[in-house]
Design goal:
This protein is of the alpha/beta class. The chain contains 17 helices and 14 strands. The protein binds D-xylulose and cobalt (II) ion. One of its GO terms (cellular component) is cytoplasm.
Length: 448
């Protein structure tokens, strides 16, 4: 790359010798082996095109504040093409291996889908050229079927057949783009697939239509030989009041109901988990126990703000918990990664804040990986969990497990047990001690 587009040098790993943060990684050392794999292969970091290159840093009360070096390109197509140059230099400097995008992140819409597709293809041509020289991979692509006013009442769940038809047509092209760029996954976040009021909503029909669109997408992907892992991304609310893919458990039930669980897995996001009243760890646990963990969107919410703020992850406790689940799963998913569905705060409006945001996000997950790997290596939680359920290994517990004990045997066993005996069958969880242990692991693993 001849010209320097971003005023930033390559971000390198320097270890944790200095306490202040600069343009460097303190924990992410891509080729270092942790728990048997290179860090880059555990984490598979991806930069989200929409938040990084398109987001103007608006909030519900204020205009965008972002200053971006490509703002000088005022023609929308010139701007879209220039942004690809900026994006690939950004990846080179940051050292991420993957990118993610929606179709509409890349190029402006025309008046018809034919014109829109032509605009998109020009930008995709440029991305494919860069991929050839840089080896950059696409973690996933997706289709934006929620921004344009035509999607006011949803896409696949729209009550208007023309909009369903248009959504299918848009998706068809987006899958073709996915094949061209070699996307490892394809994501469906249910943009406006939900409802505002049940008084005017045929909930069953809408969900049947959503499932129909997903099946059509998978069938078409098979037809064109696009073998990406299909993913659904749950979110409980925003933009609609009631999103159908509320959380991991609800989405898994939907997938099973409509026979999608063989071909689809989940893409889980930290802030979405919080909006559903869950932790990120809870969502990842639910998915991994169902064998349906696909990929992760990395961000965090703010306990003091109610909306989806897509903050760069910085909470080491949460990243440790997430990476603990990932290690237990043997990896994020068959082809999953950590996509920074994150943006700078509105007050962090300079171009280089995009680098600093990714640095804190990547370092937080790298730190979480290091801590979780040490906890796994020492088996610290494994022993605690095994001990807690040990009564199922022998005696009446083993009989419950084997099916030998039914209601009658369990009644005979329990009928004369005294309160004191039953109290003695339980023991304290010592949860505070566990949390203190986790704190020690965080401080000591990272302090070395
Ligand atoms: C919205 C969200 C999306 C999806 C992709 O909350 O998370 O960015 O990840 O459409
Ligand atoms: Co997301």
């Amino acid at each position: 790359m001849a010209e320097q587009l971003w005023d930033m040098d390559k971000i390198n790993y320097v270890g944790n010798s200095s306490l202040t943060s600069g343009a460097e990684f303190h924990y992410y050392n891509p080729d270092e082996v942790v728990a048997g794999k290179k860090m880059r292969d555990w984490l598979r970091f991806s930069v989200a095109y929409w938040h990084t290159f398109d987001q103007r840093l608006v909030d519900p009360f204020g205009d965008g504040t972002a200053i971006r070096p490509y703002d000088k390109y005022t023609d929308p197509m010139d701007n879209a093409l220039a942004k690809v140059d900026y994006a690939f230099e950004f990846y080179d400097k940051l050292g991420n291996d993957f990118l993610c995008f929606h179709d509409r992140d890349l190029a402006p819409e025309g008046d018809t889908l034919r014109e829109t597709n032509a605009n998109l293809d020009k930008v995709v041509d440029r991305i494919v050229d860069y991929q050839k020289t840089t080896g950059m991979k696409v973690l996933w692509n997706t289709s934006n079927m929620f921004t344009n006013p035509r999607f006011v009442a949803g896409a696949g769940t729209s009550p208007y057949a023309d909009i369903f038809a248009y959504s299918a047509a848009q998706l068809k092209h987006s899958l073709e783009v996915g094949k061209r760029v070699g996307s490892e996954n394809y994501v469906f976040w249910g943009g406006r697939e939900g409802y505002e009021s049940l008084w005017n909503t045929d909930m069953k029909l809408e969900q049947e239509h959503a499932a129909k669109l997903f099946h059509m997408a998978k069938d078409y992907a098979n037809e064109i030989g696009f073998d990406a892992q299909m993913l659904l991304e749950p979110k409980p609310k925003e933009p609609t009041t009631h999103q159908y893919d509320f959380d991991a458990a609800t989405t898994i039930a939907f997938m099973k109901e409509y026979d999608l669980d063989k071909d689809f897995k989940l893409n889980l996001e930290g802030n979405h988990a919080n909006l559903a009243g869950h932790t990120y760890q809870h969502e990842i646990r639910v998915a991994r126990e169902a064998g349906l963990l696909g990929s992760l969107d990395a961000n965090q919410g703010d306990k003091l703000i109610g909306w989806d703020i897509d903050e760069y992850p910085s909470n080491l406790y949460e990243t440790t918990a997430a990476m603990y689940e990932v290690l237990e799963n043997g990896g994020i998913g068959p082809r999953g990664g950590l996509n920074f569905d994150s943006k700078p705060r509105r007050s962090s409006f300079e171009p280089n804040d995009l680098f600093y945001g990714h640095i804190v996000g990547m370092d937080s997950f790298a730190a979480g990986l290091r801590v979780a790997a040490k906890m796994e290596e020492d088996g610290v939680l494994k022993n605690i969990v095994a001990d807690r359920y040990s009564s199922y290994k022998s005696g009446i517990g083993a009989d419950i497990e084997s099916g030998k004990a039914g209601f009658k045997e369990l009644e005979a066993y329990s009928l004369d047990k005294t309160q004191a005996e039953l109290r003695a069958a339980t023991s304290s969880d010592h949860l505070e001690q566990i949390k203190d242990t986790i704190n020690h692991y965080i401080v000591n693993t990272l302090g070395k």
